[in-house]
Amino acid sequence: MKIVTIFLLLVSPLILFLLAKTTYHNFFAEYFYDILFVKVVSLGLFLTIFSLSLNQDRNKWIVFLANQTMGVFIIHTYIMKVWEKLFGFNFVGAYLLFALFTLSVSFIIVGMLMKIPYFNRIVKL
């Protein structure tokens, strides 16, 4: 079961990216939320987390990250556009760095916004 979940988690985003790049010439795949591959990625991620044996420390991290998901959802598209304008996609490994950078910066910005009382209610689910 773990092999299947890890396989789904790793391969599905690549298929979604290749579909977006070759068919629709859109690198972000932001308009493909309701196709099959997005559901497969979601299922793979859910099964991966579901199959982990969680202790209290990991449970705290999951709750901490789960509280930030709405804010990351709101902010990540802006960060993607800034990355594209500043750096483009002209170097090897740009797409992998693009995803890691976008998620990292999104979580950092949302973490800072959650320290402000008014914004805490906006970005928290």
UniProtKB/TrEMBL annotation:
Entry superkingdom: Bacteria
- Where is each Acyltransferase domain found? 5-110
Query: Which parts of the chain span the membrane according to its record?
Result: 36-54, 61-80, 92-114
Query: What GO MF terms are annotated?
Result: acyltransferase activity, transferring groups other than amino-acyl groups
Keywords, A to Z? Acyltransferase, Membrane, Transferase, Transmembrane, Transmembrane helix
Pfam families named among the record's database cross-references? Acyl_transf_3 (PF01757)
Family annotation (InterPro entries): Acyl_transf_3_dom (IPR002656)
State what protein this is by name. Acyltransferase family protein
Q: Which organism is it from?
A: Streptococcus mitis
Q: What is the lineage of its organism?
A: Bacteria, Bacillati, Bacillota, Bacilli, Lactobacillales
